[in-house]
Structure formats: structure tokens, C-alpha cells
Amino acid sequence: MAQPVSKNWAVLFWHRPRLLLPRKAVFYVHMVLGLSIGLLATIICLTGSLIVYKPEIESLILGPVSHLVPPADSRTVSLQLAYDAVRQARPDCKIVQAYLHAEPDLAWSFDLNCKPRGRVVVYIDKYRGNITGEDRFQGKWTQWIYDLHVRLLSGATGETINGIGALLLVVLASTGLVVWWPGVKHWRSAFRFESRARWRRKNYDLHRLTGFFASLLLMFVAVTGAYFAFPKTYEAIIAWAARKPSVLLAPRTQGGAQPGRARPGLSLDAIYATAVQGLPVGETTLFTFPQQKDAPYSVRRMLPGDRRRTGDNLVYIDQYSGQVIRVNYHRELAWPIRFTRDFYPLHFGTFFGNFTRILWIIIGLAPATLYVTGLLLWWNRSIRPALRRRGRRREMSMATDAAIAEPVSP
Description:
A hairpin with an 8-residue loop joins strand 5 and strand 6. The chain has helices at 9-15, 21-50, 54-62, 79-89, 141-151, 155-180, 199-226, 231-242, 268-278, 335-341, 343-348, 354-405, and strands at 94-99, 108-114, 118-124, 131-136, 283-288, 297-302, 313-317, 324-328. Helix 2 (21-50) packs across helix 12 (354-405), helix 5 (141-151) packs across helix 6 and helix 7 packs across helix 12 (354-405). The protein contains twelve helices and eight strands. The protein is of the alpha+beta class. Helices cover 51% and strands 12% of the residues. The longest helix is centred in the C-terminal third of the chain and has 52 residues, at 354-405. 24% of the residues are buried.
């Protein structure tokens, strides 16, 4: 005797999800979205996997330009001397920031804005004070991949399309999980891969298993990635939910000296020493120079447990007085501000070091697998039967035409 079907949607979905009409609607939403944004998601995620180790790849390519042989006396030159050498070599460019790599075999690198050539990085031997070379980012293949990932090579418009695609990927992955669920009695079959089955069954199993294991992390990466396209919207939502500010802007300074230079007698080494006194723990990674009259110097320092490759903690120094304006010790900031600041390391997978970076590379390959297997599923489900029906109709039509044209014997 057949058991009565429950009218409770939750119970029915738990036991017999295929009987639910909304589940069929979710399936078609999943299929249409997959066909619509599958290629975009594949491009974005594949390029994302390629740039997880972008700084390290670029450093390896540069070779002796970025790598040094430390002398017996590993004392570094002064920051002011290095700054002056870069400024003399590139007087037409604005020095934006300096990466003070602590690794003994890595040179310091100064990030420059050289219009119209764009970004140029000048490397300097931190032990001897001589410039070892430079790296131009305009036309560089790693930068091309990065621009494709972030802006689809289309500037602000591409960035917006990218953000919308990321949010649609969240819908695609979540509907995939709904379609994946076979019911509590058959949950083991949802994890089975029929290695001896025909290729269509193998393709179905590969799509289903890849989708299940990758969906949650893909949604995580997509949600954090959409932040960069819609930062103001994210920040407003977080501030509304927390009833607290979600953004902490850099402090402003007072004075009228030429921007980017301290008052006479105040060297960059003195500014750096003051920053270290303001935050005496950690390792200095980044020194940023003011680009406006009211902007401060900032020194970024890394502490154990920080999620960014360059650290999460900042010290701001007045460019005129040389005094500490503010110390942003990340762990002491309000949680909405920490949450907003953490979108970058969360999206690029730097929060657990190499483990998450490698995991992010693997996850970035999943959409390509899902897109190809999904296309094959759609072909076998919709296109192939339609082609067969058309072929049968054509054969019947030809047979009918032949019968009509055949002369009747007297």
C-alpha cells in the first residue's frame, strides 16, 4: 500500500525532494544560470588560481633583480639613502610605497606611479644601496591575467560585471546544493562515483561530486570577491547590521609643506624609528609615502596570526611634525571594521598561509570542471533528444514524400 505524501515541504524535501514542484523550478534556475555565467565563472576562477602566488612568481621571474646575495655584514642601508637613490633614478615618477622585505635574500622594492607608463617597481640592494633593476607592469603577462580577473580588461564596467557574476555564482552554487540532495534514504548514493558505468553516468557523477565539495568555498570566494566591485554597498550593510561604523579612514594631517616630504631635518629614518616606537612589536613590511598635502606616512607591521601577506597593523605618522597620529592594532579594532578590512585576505586565501592559498588554487579549477560537465549534461538532456526527434521527423517526412511521389499502378 502506497504511503501518503506529506504536505510539509521541509519533510518532503528531506525524504522525497524530486516530488517537490519548487525543486524542479530550482533545477531550471540552476541550469539556466550555469549556461549563462558558466564561462564567465570559469575565466574568473581560473585566472584567480593563477594569481594566488603572483608576487612570488614575479619575483622568481626577475631573478637577480629581486634576489640578493647577503654580505657577511648583513647591515642594511638607511631608508633615506634608498629613497634618494630611487628618486634620482626616476625623477619623473611619484614614489608611492616601499616594500621592506625582511627576507635576507630579497631586495627592497619601491612602487612608483610613472605616467603615462603606469606602475613601475624599482628594486634596490638593501645592503649596498645600488639599484638592481626595475619591473614595468604595463603589458606584463601576470598583470594582464590580474586585470582580466579583476576587471575583465574593461575597467570599471568589467569590474561591475565581475561583481554581478560573483553574486550570481552564489545563487548557482546554492541551487546546485538543492538539486544535489537525493533524500535521506539515498544520501550515500550522492557520494558514489560509478567508475564502471558509461561515460554519461561518469560525467553526471563528476559534476555532482565536484559541485558538492566545491560549492561552499566557491560561495565564500564569490561573496568576498563581489566586495571589490561594490565596497560601499557592503560597508553600508555591515554598518547597518552592526549599528557601528564599518570603515576606519586614514587620519589627516595639518600643514602646508610640499606633499610627500617631511619638514627640513626630519628624515625618513626618523619617521620609521618613530613608527617602530609607536608599535614596537612585529615586522615592518610596507612604508607608504603621502601623496596629498593632508595625508600621513604609514608603516605596516606584521604580527603572528595576521591574515595579510604584508600584515594587518598600521602606524600613521604626521608628515610635518614626525609624530605618531594613530596606531591601528588590528585585533583591537571594532569587529565591523576588522570584518571589512579582512575581505582582501579572505578572498585571496592568505589567512592560513600556504594551506589556504593552495586550497584556493584547487577551488579555482572547480568551475571549469563544472562548466564542461554541465554542458555535456545539458547536451544529453535537451539537445541530443531534440536532434533525434528532428531526425525522426525528417525521415518520416521523406518517407511520406516518397509514398506520394510513387506512381500508382493501373
